[in-house]
Design a protein that fits this description.
It contains 14 helices and 31 strands. The chain has about 800 residues and is of the alpha/beta class. The chain folds into four domains: about 525 residues, no CATH class; about 80 residues, no CATH class; about 40 residues; about 50 residues, no CATH class. It binds a DNA duplex (12 and 13 nucleotides) through loops. Keywords: Nucleus.
DNA sequence: GAGTTTGAAACT
DNA sequence: CAGTTTCAAACTC
């Protein structure tokens, strides 16, 4: 099992949660203490979370009664028949995916509830036609998972966790039930302990939901209802897949460090049933205002509610409206940060034409950073890209990768970072791909032709903590090990006020080195220009993205604010290529690296500042941050009112340049030295005559350059215009241009005429000016004759 | 273009 | 923290 260490959270912004590999359990009901214990996050290394309550992965999944062997096969192999893949979980998320329509009413049984275990590492959920069992992947036990009332209500009764470690963690319940009517609903509830959650089911006619055979196409669209209850701040992804297969997967999230919203995508493509991807945000465990937004997805039914703190609650399931395959992500802002922010839901359909799938990004709340983790499972290695917008701004960008990687870009509103996740899931993977803890992935399938790898986004939880390389824990025994390679990239690009305090220390890139046997998970924080790099291999920009400017200039790299120059300013200029030879462009000597950029079109040798050396780059970043936590911060702080207040944060140390050469960082930034500087013989101050002289010279030179440039441009334009206007004469007239008649003979004749005029003037003792005038006039006449004869004859004659 | 100068970054 | 070394850009020829 892949485990995200506590460091991971510290590396990534709070707004985006990441989930680790989906835990695949070879057994439907894992009760292995060892596994659970291993998967448990270390208590000794608590990572500050966005919420005060330590996050604990809580997963309640519906497990089929099928024999373990059957389940194992279903989980470990990605079969087209698997219609449901449910994974995920952030700390207290519970995901349930009903995969099949069960004819038996109220499939949930107390007997299965007893199967709930505390094994966090293993959680498997599947629904068999015969019934539904619950397997708790979380640390908590559900002694009485829920009760079913006569009036189509399901009451979830949260019971205090059995283990001591569990008691400190917020409870979360997610359950799925398949009512008799074949309707399915999902409940993702993370409420307070001991508080029941009541779900009211709509009265639907029971259908003969006979047990369906795996791979059997569903004639009837599945209805899913997702209910999010609770007060947790964590985003809760809920994936609902078409109720085709009887196997669903639930990966338990290792724990407390991960706040994640995952979009599990099922590799399976179903021909008939509607596909629903629903991601809801988990309610705040702290009891703060929890907002849950659930986007409507295709035929599924999604119930969204802003969950107040106090359960029990009765929720009425509502119909969803969408008609196409979509993935809905509704990242919610942390209630702790914005307790009372009105729920805001924005759906951004992503047209992934080449993938034949759409991703719907739903934004639930405005300001709070959202944590979104999207995981995709696929039976076939593919390339997929997803763009997820978190926060107030939305954007969509699809990056077709030349590599078998998935790119998912997330922009957090107000953040200067773009978060882009690259997921490389290649090798043949089973439906139950290895997933990070807390990741819940499920795919539905129909319109979605093929799904690729898991896409995940991560956000550091610990503020102001430098990015660190995180090595996921190796998979534990008994877990499904996949050969799938996963890359995770997080790209900073745009400002995000909400999380900026946490991101200020973020290095331009971070790579989470894969742990042995962990499936080669890697994380990277990349500068925005990385997006550009990716786009060089042709990209598809999704329309309809509001507030997101798709990078169009391939050569232009977005840069972090450097030397007080705004990003837009720097971005407008072509980046200067570096010439590093010894530093591998992994030290601050390299401007590219120092600016958080990848080397691109540089002259460097042995460069490691690129995607191919993510690990090295991450280490270098970490090293730089260890030396100086503010290494990647702009050196020139922008003053309150204009450039006058701009000053170098550290100041320069010039000794011989007088701070009047570009050696001086202050001078280079076109600012004057300040008290921060330790320079000797500084001449870079306001009243310095040397500085003024240099400035004047520089201005004059710049003016000259501009004039020359303008003149060249104008001349080029005129020439171009002339050629454009004369072109018709060439083509339409069938003749040649006048100048083509200036043959050697014509030129000689013209010269003779001119000389004759000059001689005449000389013989007449005319002044030089008059002589010159005569010559010029004669030259004009010659030209006129040449031009006039151009269209008459091929051999114009010049006669004086 | 090669060589020198310079100062930040890295190292001790 | 200070001194030294390394490094790449800036500069000079």
């Amino acid at each position: 099992m892949e485990v995200v260490s506590p460091e991971l959270n510290s590396l990534l912004p709070d707004e985006i949660m990441d989930t680790e590999a989906i835990v695949m359990d070879d057994e439907p009901h894992s009760e292995s203490p060892a596994a659970s214990g291993q998967s448990l996050p270390s208590e000794d290394t608590p990572v500050p979370m966005e919420t005060d309550v330590p996050a604990v992965p809580e997963i309640v999944s519906l497990c089929s009664d099928a024999p373990p062997t059957q389940l194992t096969q279903a989980l470990t192999t990605s079969t087209p028949t698997d219609s449901t893949l449910c994974s995920t979980t952030s700390a207290t998320q519970l995901l349930l995916t009903p995969s099949t329509v069960s004819s038996s009413p109220l499939p949930l049984r107390p007997a299965t509830a007893s199967n709930l275990t505390c094994a966090t590492t293993k959680t498997t959920t599947s629904i068999s036609p015969a019934g539904i069992s619950l397997t708790s992947g979380g640390l908590q036990k559900l002694s009485a998972p829920f009760t079913l009332s006569a009036n189509h209500q399901i009451i979830l009764n949260k019971v205090a966790s059995s283990s001591g470690a569990d008691t400190t963690r917020s409870p979360g319940i997610t359950t799925t039930s398949t009512p008799p009517g074949g309707q399915k609903f999902m409940v993702t509830a993370i409420g307070k302990s001991g508080q029941p959650i009541v779900l009211q089911l709509p009265h639907t006619g029971s259908k003969p939901g006979s047990g369906q055979v795996l791979g059997e196409a569903k004639a009837h669209p599945q209805h899913f209802k997702v209910v999010t209850i609770g007060g947790r701040t964590d985003l809760k992804p809920v994936m609902v897949s078409q109720a085709v297969s009887s196997v669903s997967q639930v990966s338990s999230l290792q724990a407390q460090q991960l706040k994640t919203v995952q979009i599990a995508k099922k590799a399976q493509v179903s021909s008939a049933g509607p596909i629903k991807f629903i991601i809801t945000k988990a309610v705040n465990s702290k009891g703060l205002t929890a907002q849950t937004s659930v986007s409507n997805v295709i035929t599924g039914r999604v119930l969204s509610t802003s969950s107040p703190v106090t359960p029990p609650r009765t929720i009425t399931l509502s119909e969803t409206l969408s008609s196409t395959s979509k993935i809905a992500i509704s990242p919610l802002k942390s209630p702790s940060k914005v307790p009372s922010s009105p729920q805001k839901s924005v759906s951004l359909p992503l047209n992934m034409a080449h993938l034949g799938q759409q991703i719907l990004v739903q934004q639930s709340t405005a300001s709070s950073p959202a944590k979104v983790v999207c995981s995709q499972s696929t039976s076939q290695p593919m390339k997929s890209m997803q763009a997820v917008t978190v926060g107030t701004q939305q954007f969509k960008t699809i990056f077709p990768l030349s590599t078998p990687s998935n790119v998912q870009q997330i922009q957090v509103p107000g953040s200067r970072f773009h978060y882009v996740r690259l997921v490389t899931a290649t090798t043949g993977n089973s439906t139950g791909q290895a997933a990070s803890p807390g990741t819940n992935s499920s795919m539905t399938a129909k319109p979605m032709v093929v799904n690729t790898a898991q896409v995940r986004m991560s956000v550091p939880i610990v503020p102001a903590q430098p990015m660190k390389q995180v090595v996921p824990k190796p998979l534990t025994s008994g877990q499904v090990v996949t050969t799938q390679t996963q890359q995770r990239l997080i790209m900073p690009a745009t400002p995000l006020p909400q999380i900026q305090p946490n991101l200020t220390n973020l290095p331009p890139g971070t790579v989470l080195a894969p742990a042995p046997g962990s499936g080669n998970l890697s994380y990277a924080v990349l500068p925005a220009q990385y997006v550009t790099q990716l786009q060089q291999s042709a990209y598809v920009t999704l329309a309809g993205s509001a507030g997101f400017s798709t990078p169009t200039g391939i050569q232009t790299q977005a840069r972090l604010p450097l030397n007080g120059v705004s990003t837009s300013d720097t971005a407008s200029r072509p980046r200067k290529p570096c010439n590093c030879t010894k530093s591998q462009c992994l030290k601050l000597y390299c401007d590219c690296f120092a600016n958080g950029e990848f080397c691109q079109s540089c002259n460097c040798t042995n460069c490691s500042n690129n995607l191919e050396h993510e690990t090295e780059r991450a280490k270098a970043i970490k090293a730089c941050l260890d030396r100086n936590p503010e290494a990647f911060k702009p050196k020139i702080g922008k003053g309150k009112e204009g450039e006058a207040d701009r000053r170098h944060s550290k100041g320069c140390n010039c000794k011989r340049s007088g701070c009047l050469k570009n050696y001086c960082e202050c001078y280079e930034a076109k600012i004057m030295c300040s008290s921060n500087c330790k320079c000797v013989g500084c001449k870079n101050f306001e009243e310095s005559p040397e500085r003024k002289t240099l400035m004047h010279l520089a201005d004059a030179a710049e003016v000259r350059v501009q004039q020359q440039t303008a003149a060249k441009t104008k001349l080029s334009s005129q020439i171009s215009d002339l050629l454009t206007r004369t072109t018709p004469a060439i083509t339409s007239g069938g003749g040649r241009m006048p100048y083509t008649f200036v043959t050697k003979e014509v030129a000689e004749a013209t010269c003779e005429c001119l000389l004759e005029k000059a001689e005449q003037a000389e013989l007449n003792h005319q002044p030089q000016a008059a002589a010159e005038r005569m010559v010029l006039e004669e030259f004009g006449r010659c030209l006129m004759r040449i031009i006039s004869s151009a269209g008459k004859t091929d051999c114009p004659s010049i006669n004086c």
